[in-house]
Amino acid sequence: xxxxxxTPDKESTKTTAAVTEPPAAEPIPDRPSFAERVGQKKWxxxxxxxxxxxxxxxxxxLFESKRDRQMAIKFGEGRPEDKPTQAVIDKMKEAGxxxxxxxxxxxxxxxxxxxxxxRIDAERLYQExxxxxxQEKGIETGQEVPF
Length: 147
Hints:
With 147 residues, the chain is of the alpha+beta class. It has three helices and five strands. Helix content is 24%, strand content 18%. It has a five-stranded antiparallel beta sheet, covered by helices on one side.
């Protein structure tokens, strides 16, 4: 096999550069210009209420609603057959949670001056109630899915 080397012809060594102008940009009538869009931000909102913790085996979920300014604990789907035992209900009432029949949740208001304390207390109550229900149902203590 022979290797070939390309050598330019003496006549073809001249190069020419074509200068082209970019096409004129036509403004799109219904779209804002780049200058108008600068500084505009698209905010992505979180779902409301959003889930904080879920225990599917025990059937207990902890939510927070920023719109309604409340923490909520829901048992199952909120149906009458998902109602927790009286011991769990008493624990919920002691913690200041009240039954909301329209949304089928146990809710506690979140006030601006005590918001962090309310969130922490609600999470502790959720853990206690979750353990009580697991013991009642005979489910071994396990790791929950936090979301």
